[in-house]
Specification:
alpha/beta, 4-stranded parallel beta sheet, 3-stranded mixed beta sheet, 10 helices
Amino acid sequence: MARTPTARTTPGMAHPDYLKKVLTARVYDVARESELEHARNLSARLRNSVYLKREDNQPVFSFKIRGAYNKMVQLSADVLARGVITASAGNHAQGVAYSATRLGCKAVIVVPVTTPQVKIDAMRAFGGPTVEIVQHGESYSDAYGHAVKLQEARGLTFVHPFDDPDVIAGQGTVAMEILRQHQGPIHAIFVPIGGGGLAAGVAAYVKAVRPEIRVIGVQAIDSCAMKQSIE
């Protein structure tokens, strides 16, 4: 695995709005406080204490439900009435679909044609009649570009998978739970990075509350766009 450089936020310099946004995020209508489990075998092998945040136990089996719902629940009634749209390869789309059902709004979800059928079936199962699935292009970038065009044509609100303050704040509640569940010393929190929404939310909260904790982003060697961007 490739590791991104450790976050170097100066204590007290975290954006104050993000701390407030995480603390007031509305995620628990749909999400649950997931377990922080001690990984016994991994800890023994590494001769350290390793804990796993079990976001796979969320209703959509991913942390993505936090950010999607926190974004959508804060939209006004008239905006929700017009509907939302997103582009995703899978997990974020399931979070949007689930949130659309809970909020009673229509959601258009644009996915690449390469999206596994099992994920498309999950989107339909979570969203039911409130969700319209559009398949377009070979990659997320293709799907995203098409979603932007549909957004403008239909007057929908875009729910971005990661590049949105309310989505980032929703994902940041993961860090809030970790620090509540493990109040002793923590050397580092390792965060997987795709688009960066989870890493941004975790880093913003942790560096504001416990700046001594290292926040380390992790990506696969053959898909390390964030590491290359930072370098």
